[in-house]
Amino acid sequence: MLTIDITKLSPAQLLELSKAAEQLTAQKKREREQNIAAYKAMVDETVVALAPDLASFGTLQGLKVEKTFNAFQQALALKKELYDYKDSQASHTFTSRDGMASVTIGHNEIIGFDGTENAGVIKIREYMTTLADEDPKRKILVRFLETFMKPNKKGELNPARIVELIGLKEEANDNSFSDGVDIIVNAQFKTRTSTYVKGWFRRQDGEGKDMKLEFSISTK
Q: By its UniProt entry, which InterPro entries does this protein fall under (predicted)?
């Protein structure tokens, strides 16, 4: 690589070198602008080409999910009559007795709190104050409250961890503690965010080998 000692260049040569550098910078800027324009044009073309087909496919997915749910309504009614399942059940799985196919219909859910859970946390903390410092129960609860029941950035509790708190009711054996846990549990509510159908079926390939093919469709 050629190295130029600018201290040995004349003013005219320095000016020429400066102009060349400016031209190179301007050229790189133009190339970048052209690449950006080409990228945006590529995105426009790809989005416009695919969006209509994807929208149609999304509509078809919704219809497939609806059709599948409708197909199982009679089975669900009979299942409720025979096995007394709860309407709040989020999903139902149906599998053929020969083990060749299975379909699950259900709803994706998120769990939130109605704001009264803090009263339960306060009750549990009040219960902790009644325990001696050396009491093993206190150590367990302190660790639990500071980790498993630590709110997220939004100040909300993690619903998945509440189950572990329920498991401590028997160990604590205290009405105040149990009341606090019950308040937290009762403060939870579920919101259905989407509906889905998933499952699998078995078939043989061209060589007679068994294949398990899975499917999953979700729609709002």
A: Phage_B3_Orf6
CA pair distance 179, 120, nearest whole angstrom:
7
Residues 195 and 101 placed together within one structural domain of the fold: yes
- Per DSSP, what are the bridge partners of residue 102? 95, 200
- Are 127 and 103 found together in one domain? no
User: Distance (Å, rounded) from C-alpha 121 to C-alpha 154?
Assistant: 16
Number of structural domains the chain divides into: 3
Same domain, 195 and 212: yes
Q: What is the pLDDT along the chain (220 residues), one digit of tens a residue?
A: 566 667 777 788 777 777 888 888 888 999 999 999 999 999 999 999 999 999 999 999 999 999 999 999 999 999 988 988 777 788 999 999 999 999 999 999 888 888 888 888 888 888 877 777 777 777 766 766 666 566 667 666 767 667 777 777 777 778 888 888 888 888 888 888 899 999 999 988 777 788 899 999 998 8
199, 182: one domain: no
Nearest to 72 by CA among 88, 95, 56: 95
Tokens representing 92 are 């139902």
Structure tokens at 127: 């219960």
Whether residues 66 and 91 share a domain: the answer is no
Same domain, 210 and 105: yes
Domain of residue 15 covers 11-71
